[in-house]
Amino acid sequence: MGVVVIDGTTVRDFVNDEAHFTKSVDDQFTALDTNNDGVLSRAELRTAFESMRLIESHFGIDVATSPEELKKLYDSIFEKFDCDGSGAVDKNEFRSEMKKIMLAIADGLGSFPIQMILEDDDNSLLQKAADLEASKSAAA
Ligand SMILES: [Ca+2]
User: Fold this and answer.
1) Which residues form a coiled coil (predicted)?
2) 68, 71, 88, 127: which sits with the fewest CB atoms below 10 Å from its CB?
3) What is 36-103 written as a DSSP string?
4) How far does the centroid of ligand 1 lie from the alpha carbon of residue 21, in Å?
5) Digitized pLDDT (tens) for each residue of the chain, 140 residues in all
6) Strand locations in 7-104, DSSP E?
7) pTM for the complete prediction?
8) Alpha-carbon separation of residue 54 from 38, 77, 83, 96, 119 (angstroms)
9) For residue 33, how far is its CA from the centre of ligand 1 (angstroms)?
């Protein structure tokens, strides 16, 4: 686990750095596609959101959610990602939804930096956003 300080601008800069963002999302997609068939199944996508902990914990605060409610939530997320209703999420669908999610997080964060505790996960997009910000500060 690591603690990063992050605000909306950090996340937005990361998303707007298209080459960097696309590569990060693609890396995450590849890591999630555990059976290597080039698309994310319902279970594979669920793993993504479990690791991001966006649902079970609201920015670090654990909230109790019943397994039935969680299943409904994950199903609705899957259907959102699976734009063409093919039953699997391809790379383009994943990219465009992740972009929307990250921008929604940026809006939610606003301009007030908050501390976030992230699991150790090399593919965490928020971690990468923080890393990008840190590398800019170091270069400045
Ligand atoms: Ca797959």
Assistant:
1) none
2) 68
3) -SSSB-HHHHHHHHHHHTSSSEETTEE----HHHHHHHHHHHHHHH-TT-SSSB-HHHHHHHHHHHHH
4) 21
5) 577 788 899 999 999 999 999 999 999 999 999 999 999 999 999 887 776 655 444 555 556 667 788 788 888 889 999 999 999 999 999 999 999 989 988 998 888 787 776 666 666 788 888 888 888 777 76
6) 57-58, 61-62
7) 0.76
8) 24, 12, 21, 18, 12
9) 4
Place of tokens 């997609």: 29
Query: What are the residues whose beta carbon lies below 5 Å from ligand 1 (ion)?
Result: 33, 35, 37
Task: State the distance from the centre of ligand 1 to the C-alpha of 113, rounded, in angstroms.
Answer: 36
| Rounded distance from Cα 136 to ligand 1 centre (Å) | 35
Host domain of residue 46 = 2-139
Cα 31 to ligand 1 centre (Å): 10
Residue 37 C-alpha to ligand 1 middle, in angstroms?
Answer: 5
Whole-number Å distance, alpha carbon 88 to ligand 1 midpoint, is 8
Q: Please count the structural domains in the chain.
A: 1
CA–centroid distance, 9 to ligand 1, in Å, is 33
